[in-house]
Amino acid sequence: MSLPIVRTVADLRAAVAAWRHQGLRVALVPTMGALHEGHLTLVRHGRSMADRVVASVFVNPTQFGPSEDFSRYPRDEAGDAAKLAGAGCDLLFAPTVEAMYPAGFSTSIEVGPVTRRWEGAARPGHFSGVATVVTKLLLQCLPDVACFGEKDYQQLQTIRRLVADLDIPVAIEGVPIVRDADGLALSSRNAYLTPAQRQTALALNRTLHRVVERLRRDPAVVDAAAAEGMAALLAAGFEAVDYLAVVDAASLEPVERIDGPARVLCVARLGGVRLLDNFPV
Length: 281
Ligand code: PAF
What we know:
The chain is an alpha/beta fold. Helices cover 40% and strands 19% of the residues. Strands 1-4-3-2-5-6 form a 6-stranded parallel beta sheet, sandwiched between helices. Helix 7 (153-165) links the parallel strand 5 and strand 6. It is globular.
C-alpha cells in the first residue's frame, strides 16, 4: 500500500487530529530523507511507543553552512516513501521550503551551552537551524513521542534541552546507533565514500571501542586514551580528526575522569566527508 503524503501544516494537523479523536497516540520521526536502516529503526521504535507514526522528510536549508552539501544532499522521495511504508509508518509529512519558511520568516532558536562545542563549533549556525526546525515540526505535529538517533548525539541532547526549556509536551526518545555488519555507523553521507575509503572508515568504530575499553579499565586516563585514539585514526588513514573527546553524557562538557555517565564523541574526515560516531562509557 502506498504511503499517504501531506505537504501542508493544515493537512498534517487534520490527520493527527483525526487520530487523536480516536484516542490514538502519535509518534513523530523527523528526518532529512535519504533513509537507511537507522531511520527505519526510529520508525519501528516510534511504532512500539505509539499507535500511529508520522515521518517528516525535509532537507532543512538553515542547518547547512554556505560551503556544506545542501544542494547535493541525496533526495529520493519515492524511495523514502516506500521504505517508510515497509517499516510501518502511517503518514509522510514532506513540506516545501516555502511552506516551512514563508516570506518574512525571522525567528530562530538558540539552545545555549550544550550547542557551543563540537559540532556547534565546527558548524556555526547548525544547531540554531536544527533547533528551529525541530521546534516547528514538534509544534506542527504535536506528537506524544518524537524519536531521534543517538548517532547525532549532540543534536539529541540539544533537542532534549529545548523541549524541557520551552515546555513542549512531547517525550523525546533517543535510539541507539544502527551499524552495518562491519561496525560502520549508518549515515546518509556514507554514500559519498569510495570503496577504499569505506574500508578505512571501519577504523573509527574499532578505535572508539578501544578508547571505551581503556576507560572502563582505568577511568582516570581520559587524556591519554583520547590522544591514542586520535593517533590511531590518523595512522589508519583518516585525513584529520576534528575532535575525539570524552564528555559528560548530558552537558557534553569535557570530563577529566569517568565518574558518571559519559560519552566518547568523535568526528574524523575521509575524502572530505566528516564521519561522526560516538559510544557510551
Ligand atoms: O537528524 C536529522 O536528520 C535532522 O537534523 C533533523 C532532526 C531532521 C532536523 O532537520
